[in-house]
Write a structure and sequence with these properties.
Helix content: 25-40%
Structural class: alpha+beta
Distance between the termini: 29 Å
Organism: Promicromonospora umidemergens
Protein name: DUF2993 family protein
Largest sheet: 6 strands, antiparallel
């Protein structure tokens, strides 16, 4: 009998958690998907924290990065070697599109995109070296890192990983 009550309780709580996730997800950018992970619902209710999986497509990452920086022409794509920000830069008097390879990490409850290297003219260079030599202030923002979610947020990012489609995040959110 206790097992049956436990199963029924688990199913009811999953429904409640999924309903809260669905209503919160309506406020997210297009393409971002949120799902409850495999942690038992009874445990999530007992701890007061829902554990989530969030998938962010490259387009939504680009939108977030453009909003957080002074780089309105930056596009973020997903590549076999991770996330790539493509952006025009003035190099030796001419504008060229460069590929900035990005790393992603979970730091302080936020996901942080940070520039690692730049591909320019067939060469791969450390981004901080290129930014300093060419005096490109725009790259400094990416070297320091772009955090999201920005501002106060009930969401705490616990893991971040680049995927073929964009970014996969592990997150926790207070239920009450």
């Amino acid at each position: 009998m206790l097992v049956v009550l436990g199963v029924i309780g688990e199913l009811v709580l999953r429904y409640i958690i999924d309903d809260r996730i669905e209503s919160a997800a309506a406020e997210l950018p297009p393409g971002v998907s949120v799902a409850r992970d495999d942690t038992p619902a009874l445990w999530q209710v007992a701890t007061g924290r829902a554990t989530l999986r969030v998938e962010v497509p490259a387009q939504a990452l680009g939108d977030a990065a453009r909003e957080a920086t002074d780089l309105p022409d930056m596009e973020v794509t997903s590549a076999s070697d991770g996330l790539v920000a493509q952006m025009p830069l003035s190099v030796a008097g001419s504008e060229q599109t460069v590929d900035v390879l990005l790393s992603v990490a979970a730091e302080g409850g936020r996901a942080v995109l940070r520039a690692e290297s730049v591909r320019l003219g067939g060469l791969t260079l450390p981004v901080d070296t290129l930014a300093e030599q060419l005096d490109v202030a725009e790259l400094d923002q990416l070297v320091e890192g772009v955090e999201f979610p920005e501002g106060e947020s009930p969401v705490e990012i616990s893991s971040a990983q680049a995927t073929d489609e964009g970014l996969e995040l592990g997150a926790e959110v207070a239920m009450w």
